[in-house]
Amino acid sequence: MFKTYMYPNLHLMLQRHIPLKSLNTFGFDVEASLFLPIADEEILHNVWKTNLLSMSSPLILGGGSNILFKDNYPGLILQNLIAGMQVAKETENHIWLRCGGGEVWHNVVMYTIQNNWGGLENMSLIPGTIGASPIQNIGAYGAELKDVFEELEAFDMLYGKMVTLRADDCAFAYRDSLFKQNGKGRYFITYVTLRLNKNPSVNVKYGDIANILEQWGISKPGIADVSRAVIHIRRSKLPDPAELGNCGSFFKNPVVSKEVADTLCATYPDAKRFDQPDGTAKLAAGWLIEKAGWKGYRRGDAGVHEKQALVMVNYGNATGAEILSLAGEIVEDIQAKFQVNLEMEVNTR
Ligand code: EPU
């Protein structure tokens, strides 16, 4: 590995031409022109003193599990390696856990379960780092990050200073937040503090969880049981990136008006529809893609997963451009067949 120390006084270990194949879960064989691991806040302050942030299109990388590289990345990648988990505060019923942005999300979940602190169990096994979790307000099986989020600390790359953002500042919505909108690319998330429950109750409303627990003969589940059930369901449906390149859900579930949902369901009574409190309806993109005949489709090494149509997969040597081109065809086809617009969940670079 070729390392350069272009800023010796600032102790910046800037690297050139770093392969990204093992750093993106799609497994695309691309490289970054410049690469800088960030293990603490001081490095961010030092980077700010150079012209790197303004000159080299910085991109923050967590676990690489929600990014599609179309090609080599011509700028600077800042890899979030900030570690650590500490209890920041405790009351009779709650505990606040402050976690370094580079911690692996699932490791944080497992740590909370070992301590019987509730809130994360339904989000077991979501890939990626905790620093990336607020970006798209990760969620699964009836839970979302915003339900347990207290605050985050971030380095504001526009003004070169640390900021603390509370939930209200982050504009959390379904797979969306400030960090995908006005604040895109601006904040390097250094720490995330979660508010967890010391006397947890479980949420097994999501159909499959209750069924699995019943099959296992567990009538009074604790959070560890729910976590095991979620892990079981995820492993049965979602491909393991270590075996098959993918980024989890490639598309968002489209949120449409009641009228659009009614029209769709009149034609296809088996369509999956989840009515929202605000009168809109969320449709299952996986159902739409499967109904349109794409589930399990493969072209070259780019494909649609055979067990979950919401997931695009790289069978080996697909490029980001090939996956994107196939995804584009699917979007057009869903529009033509169902008059529904699919939006990508994954970030492209
Ligand atoms: N469905 C199909 N065909 C498919 C896939 C799904 O008909 O190929 C139907 C299912 O039968 C079900 C409905 O669609 O009735 C919903 O499917 P599922 O429970 O698998 O969830 P999803 O809506 O497809 C979302 C999240 C997942 C999360 C699951 C479970 C989004 C974009 N995706 O998927 O998140 O694990 O719910 O909560 O909201 C991720 O973000 O990477 C991710 C995997």
What does this structure look like?
With 349 residues, the chain is of the alpha+beta class. It folds into three domains: 78 residues, 2-Layer Sandwich (Uridine Diphospho-n-acetylenolpyruvylglucosamine Reductase, domain 2); 113 residues, Uridine Diphospho-n-acetylenolpyruvylglucosamine Reductase, domain 3, CATH 3.30.465; 104 residues, UDP-N-acetylenolpyruvoylglucosamine reductase, C-terminal domain (Uridine Diphospho-n-acetylenolpyruvylglucosamine Reductase, domain 1), CATH 3.90.78. Helices cover 23% and strands 29% of the residues. It is built from eight helices and 21 strands. The strands form six sheets. The protein has a five-stranded mixed beta sheet with strand order 1-2-3-6-4, with helices on one face. The protein starts with a strand and ends with a strand. The site of uridine-diphosphate-2(N-acetylglucosaminyl) butyric acid has 19 residues, from strand 14 and helix 7.
